[in-house]
Write a structure and sequence with these properties.
Structural class: alpha/beta
Number of strands: 13
Strand content: 15-25%
Distance between the termini: 6 Å
Number of helices: 16
Length: 370
Amino acid sequence: MVISTVQVIYSLEIGGVEKLAVTIGSHLDQAKFRAAICALDGDGVLAEELVRLGIPYHVLWRKGIEMGVLARLYRCFRQEKARIVHTHQFAQLLFSVLPAMAYGAKIVHTEHEYYIYRNNARARRLFKQLVRFCSALTVVGPEVARYYVEELGVPRQRIHVIANGVNLDQFGIEGRESRSRLGLSVDDVVFGIVGRLEPEKDHRTLLQAFRSLIEHQPARLVVVGDGRLRSELESYARTLGLEPHVSFLGTRTDIPEVLAAFDVFVLSSVNEGVPLSVVEAMGAGKPVIATEVGGLRLLVHPEVNGLLVPPADPAALAAAMRSLAGNLTRRQEMGMQGRRIARESFSVSTMINRYQEVYQSVLGAHDVRN
């Protein structure tokens, strides 16, 4: 019997979690699993991708803390005949627990980071209660797992560490053509970031570091993503005199093509889990400069496939960018190592096999057969 799964995410806008949910849904073994996706808060460009893939989706248009969304979730689970409800991040778990239990579905919950809980005692208390109703808790890296064991008291044996995976087949695009389409010269040294324009990504520090860099080295900065801070960051870039050197591309659905145009991927976050954007950059053969926070230590091996710097430190970030800007050979060697690491440790097939094992284990042998 085919196992019906429903993943619950925040919205259908592009983000690391949302892209991961689509990847999981599109790569499950169709002989054993059926995938659907439910977005609590809103529609977005990923809807087109789901239609293309033939994955059913639902948008519930939640408005804050409203109880009506519980009934809509229940109807979604019933319509999709969900046997597994797979929630991503705290809010989606909070709203899904009661409807999933009422329908009789098993709950698999994935946490992509832990910083939401560090300064929020109420969220920690709620999570400790909610996780008791989950048949499995998955996390995206060992550092994330360590937090839930040591700080929130989740039994280690209940946690499954499943690294985010990337389909490397999509990263064979010619960089010269990508640069031409983005209006970049083949002679530019291009630094790029892909991520939501939100406080935790700390784009201001990146802009400050880039301002310092171009005093010594001609370069371009490409900022991909959208969010609440977009207008503020564009204004800040103008204030720093960076307008001719920085491109804000907004949301893009062609990330492999955009990554092909980069020389170096940069992530300036002050909080992270194990970001899919970095795994994708590694898969595209790009060296990575990132802040030493969260699970980035798992991805970036200093002097092998990139460099790590302290968070919120423009001088250190600028120095790292400067060290790679003028050294093509070093960038190429780091990029090749990053692709090797991505292939060995972050393949999409390995990730999918692990999620399928978790799905089957929470149902049990009898449920899987029948």
